[in-house]
Q: What sequence folds into this?
């Protein structure tokens, strides 16, 4: 069974993430989307909220699971018996950081590969932080957030004043 892990902050999950999830799910027997706790970031949504939003939008995908993990990604990959990490790649600005992470993870676990899926052009400039910023100015974010969770995200961001 070929298992892949798609890690991220997903604060909140966007249509750009969903696009990567759907495409990666077609390449592996099982895809696990994992919300990682990043000590360098202060998220707006709790881990539980982020996991529940992802669960809602992947319900229709039989081979996708959602989880969270507070620790080293390389350890999580081993724990799950996965062979690959999947990442989305947007503009060049993602590249430097992702390159560094991929090489570091390879050193930690030489059996694991990192696979990059190039963003779909329509989502090239979409990020969770852009969604949060737009929402803070009252802009319509419905184009960027999957329909199933749009209302709750808009409401939560309005309450958070983000
Ligand atoms: P963000 O940078 O939006 O806060 P995350 O840390 O949650 O995102 O990102 C998780 C993964 O999803 C990363 O590999 C990131 O490059 C990828 N990703 C995020 N947004 C997009 C998008 N619009 N298109 C393709 N990949 C994306």
A:
């Amino acid at each position: 069974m070929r298992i892949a892990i798609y890690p991220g902050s997903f604060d909140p999950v966007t249509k750009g993430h969903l696009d990567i999830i759907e495409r990666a799910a077609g390449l592996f027997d099982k895809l696990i989307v994992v919300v990682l706790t990043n000590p360098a970031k202060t998220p707006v949504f709790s881990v539980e909220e982020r996991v529940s939003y992802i669960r809602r939008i992947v319900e229709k995908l039989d081979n996708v699971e959602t989880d969270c993990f507070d620790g080293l990604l390389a350890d999580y990959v081993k724990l799950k018996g996965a062979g690959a990490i999947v990442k989305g790649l947007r503009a060049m600005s993602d590249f430097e950081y992702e390159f560094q992470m991929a090489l570091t993870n390879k050193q930690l676990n030489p059996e694991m590969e990192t696979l990059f899926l190039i963003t779909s052009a329509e989502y090239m400039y979409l990020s969770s932080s852009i969604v949060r910023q737009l929402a803070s100015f009252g802009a319509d974010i419905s184009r960027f957030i999957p329909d199933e969770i749009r209302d709750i995200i808009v409401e939560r961001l309005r309450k958070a004043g983000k």
Q: What stands out?
A: Residues 8-10, 14, 16-17, 20, 87-88, 90, 94, 119, 123, 126-129 surround adenosine-5'-diphosphate (CB under 6 Å). The chain has a mean pLDDT of 94. DSSP finds six helices and five strands in the chain. The helical segments are 15-25, 47-58, 73-79, 92-108, 128-136, 147-160.
